[in-house]
Structures are given as structure tokens and as C-alpha cells.
Write a structure and sequence with these properties.
Layout (H helix, E strand, L loop, with lengths): L1 H23 L4 H17 L4 H23 L5 H12 L5 H26 L1 H7 L5 H5 L6 H11 L4 H10 L1
Amino acid sequence: MIVAAILLIFPLCLAFAAISDLLTMTIPNRISVILIASFLVLAPFSGLELEMIGMHLAGAAIVFSACFALFAFNVMGGGDAKLLSAAALWFGCEPALLTFLAYVSAIGGLVTLAILLIRSQSNTILAIGLPIPNSLLLAKKIPYGIAIAIGGFMAFPSSPLFLAALESLK
């Protein structure tokens, strides 16, 4: 049961966040709350020691501090900041967190370039009839939840909870 929860909750929350951000340019707060609460419930049962859980909390606090500063300077949206911080909690303060952040950064750059290209060609895209959400074409923001989700999917196999889940299956 714990293994199934570990392997399902994180990816499903990220997928829901990405779809919501793409279609509405918002990430519901409940997604971040679910990620945080489920980590706090699952981590002790997955075999992570108290010190490791503390390192996960520290890593998430560091990411939250950086995201808060970016939000304060109007560089990052509030939903993106909360989602990135909640997702960082699942990676701890290890190389897995750096891997996750590197993936998110790289994918974020690619998503930004793709969306800017789509917006520059919006008349052609609309004339062809491609199904592009209006929120994506009209908004000034970039739905960074997409990059957070893809980066999370790519880095999840290196996360301590994922590795603990695999270990318990042996």
C-alpha cells in the first residue's frame, strides 16, 4: 500500500498541476498540500530515518526561500513557487534535488521557447485550427508547472522515496 502510494501520488499530482497550468494558467493549492501531506505521512513508513526527513524539509525550505524571492520580484508565479517547493520535498537535500532542479530549469527553458514560438505564430496556428488553449495564447505568463512536472517525472526515479519503494519490493 505504501509503495503504491509513493509511486502514484507524486506523478499524478504533477500531471494534474501541468494540465491545470496549461489550460487555466493556475495551479490549485490543493496539489501542493497533497504533495506535502502525503510526503509527511509516507516518509516514515517508507524507511526514511528522521534525519533524512529533516534533510528533505531543509531542501524544500531552501527551494521555497528562493521561490519566494522570485515571486516577490514578480519573476515566478505563486502556484509555480508552491508546486516547486512541495515537489522539492520529495527529493531531499541530496544530489536528487539538484538533478530535479536541473531538469526543471532545462525543460523550463525549452517550454518557454516553445510557448513564445507558438505565441508568435498564433494567427497561423488559429487559421490551421490546431487546438491551442486561449489562455496559452493570450496570457503574458509562462505555465511553468509544465516544466516542473516534466522535470519531476524525469528525476523521480532518483528520489529517495522512489528508491525506498523499489527496495521494499525486493
